[in-house]
Amino acid sequence: MMEANRTSLGTEATDSYVLKNRKYLECGIPEDKLMFRTVSYGRYLQEPYINPAEHKITMIVNLRDIPLESDLEHEIFHQIVGPRFMQKRQQLKLTSGVFASRIENKRHLVSMLERIVAHTKRLAKEVAENESS
């Protein structure tokens, strides 16, 4: 199947197929560009049987995957995210442990990222309008 460039579903495994069926977040970031990390601890013998940090999720996104168009948007983005942006690697690192579920924490991180990008674009638009007035 690999030599024939086919998948187990019987479809062709080409880059155009992958790009055509790629899913995007509302803010324009491809879902496959989000990297999630979690830690798994061994089961405790005493109650509560799990580590409180078990549900913590970390999401990493490369700056080149975030659809920021102007220098003003980049500047506002850096002001919003502050120390969560790793300058050396050009990556945004968000962490959530608010909920007692990894799935909910993952949803929370995606929501945070979408709000950060949306507010960055909105603020940049408002600043540009105020400067032109």
Question: Helices and strands in order, then pairings?
Answer:
Blueprint: H1 15-20, E1 35-38, E2 57-62, H2 71-81, E3 85-86, E4 91-96, H3 102-132
Antiparallel strand pairs: 1-2, 2-4, 3-4
Feature tags:
133 residues, flat, alpha+beta, 3 helices, Double Stranded RNA Binding Domain
Structural features, described:
The protein is of the alpha+beta class and 133 residues long. It has one domain (23-132): Double Stranded RNA Binding Domain, CATH 3.30.160. The chain has helices at 15-20, 71-81, 102-132; strands spanning 35-38, 57-62, 85-86, 91-96. Strands 1-2-4-3 form a 4-stranded antiparallel beta sheet. Strand 3 (85-86) and strand 4 form a beta hairpin. Helix 2 (71-81) packs across helix 3 (102-132). The radius of gyration is 19 Å and the shape is flat. The model has no long low-confidence stretch (mean pLDDT 88).
Strand order of the largest sheet: 1-2-4-3
β-strand percent reads 5-15%
Structural class: alpha+beta
Identify the CATH architecture: 2-Layer Sandwich
Give a nutshell description of this structure.
The protein has 133 residues and is α+β, with helices and mostly antiparallel strands. It has three helices and four strands; from the N terminus they run αββαββα. Helix content is 36%, strand content 14%.
